[in-house]
Amino acid sequence: MTKDRIYSLDVLRGFSLFGIILMNIIGFSHDTFHMNPYVMFQHGWNRILHNFEILFVQNSFYPIFAFLFGYGLAMMHDSARRRARRFLPIVYRRLIAMVIFGVIHGMLIFSGDILQSYAIVTLIGAIFLYLDRSFSLIAAIVLWLLYAALYWVPTLSFALQRPDLDYMKSNPNAAEYMMNVLNSHDLSQIIGLTTDNFLTYFFISDINSFLFRATSLLPLILIGMFAKRVNLFERIVRYKKLSILIAAVAFIIGLAIKSLPIIYYGRYSLDTVAIYSGGIILSAAYIIAIVLLSENEFFRKWTAPISKVGKISFTTYISQSILMFIIIYGFQLFGRMNLIETYSIALLIYILNILFAVLYLKKFKQGPLEYIWRKITYLE
């Protein structure tokens, strides 16, 4: 089971990276900061593909990545304990390095970087690996309840009181400026705008932004830690029929919740609440399905290239951003493509990720960024 479980982790990472590029390329190629996507993509294939992205992609892959991040840290903790090594210095070197990588990535390449958020909130979350495993689950539930109280209740209350104002807004002047800059071929301006967007929307720079990430993101990481410590993947396989039932129910409920912003087109409150909550529920269905499918030899055979992408997930995540930066900004495509063209580029990049991973891992055991990260983590 150990070997299969590790394979499950690699496939999940590789699978997540495909979903992540489908989501990230929208932010890379269209102005989702200043334009209402429900207006931008309201006609024809744009609307069909945007609805598909809302239902199956949005906020359903970053939760898997966060879950796996916590799962991996629990594995590191077990390894350090077996080798009688001090874990905190190891994990904090790893997390601080991740913050630095994330800040560089967010400021220079892709403003929507999530790495630094993972790392910063886990500087606190890592402490739970020293406590009884139940505390991780309890803390995750408490943080989610706090998140709902701080962000969902006010949002939904305002929507009920002023439904006429509960619609996503657009700022055409700001959107035009952003489009001109990102299609300018002026690298200094492009990086300057990327940095501004990163620091404004995604960087954890104060207590409010930390609290938002700690209540929305840290619970997923804590659940991943808990899952490893209770051998969740082994339990999923052992109780296969129950797992299939849970996955099916989660899939239906997740899609039902995520369909609300489509039914009530462009409502800000539903876009905020339903996509987050429904996305997490749907991600649970994805995780269970892939863990169970990984027990099948045919599935392993055909997903082996995806598992190799998962083995170098850090390198793949950064390389996706670099390739999107070169293609979209280099060819002045920002704001000028429909979603068929946009997703075609995403698919092309992911195929390149697979080819690179397959060829690279024939000669090396870990990706180039993984190698650097490991050197910093273990100082060896």
Total DSSP helices: 19
Number of domains: 1
Low-confidence stretches: 1-5
| Termini Cα gap | 30 Å
Proportion of helical residues: over 70%
Radius of gyration: 21 Å
Describe the structure.
It comes from Macrococcus lamae. This protein has helices at 2-29, 37-40, 44-57, 62-82, 87-108, 115-125, 133-161, 172-182, 187-202, 207-216, 218-229, 232-238, 240-258, 260-263, 268-293, 297-311, 313-330, 339-360, 368-378. The chain is mainly α. The chain has one domain. Helix 1 crosses helix 16 and helix 13 packs antiparallel against helix 15. The longest helix is centred in the middle third of the chain and has 29 residues, at 133-161. The radius of gyration is 21 Å and the shape is globular.
Helix and strand arrangement:
Elements: H1 2-29, H2 37-40, H3 44-57, H4 62-82, H5 87-108, H6 115-125, H7 133-161, H8 172-182, H9 187-202, H10 207-216, H11 218-229, H12 232-238, H13 240-258, H14 260-263, H15 268-293, H16 297-311, H17 313-330, H18 339-360, H19 368-378
Keywords: Membrane, Transmembrane, Transmembrane helix
Domain DUF418: 229-379
Protein name: DUF418 domain-containing protein
Structure at a glance:
It contains 19 helices and no strands. The protein has helices at 2-29, 37-40, 44-57, 62-82, 87-108, 115-125, 133-161, 172-182, 187-202, 207-216, 218-229, 232-238, 240-258, 260-263, 268-293, 297-311, 313-330, 339-360, 368-378.
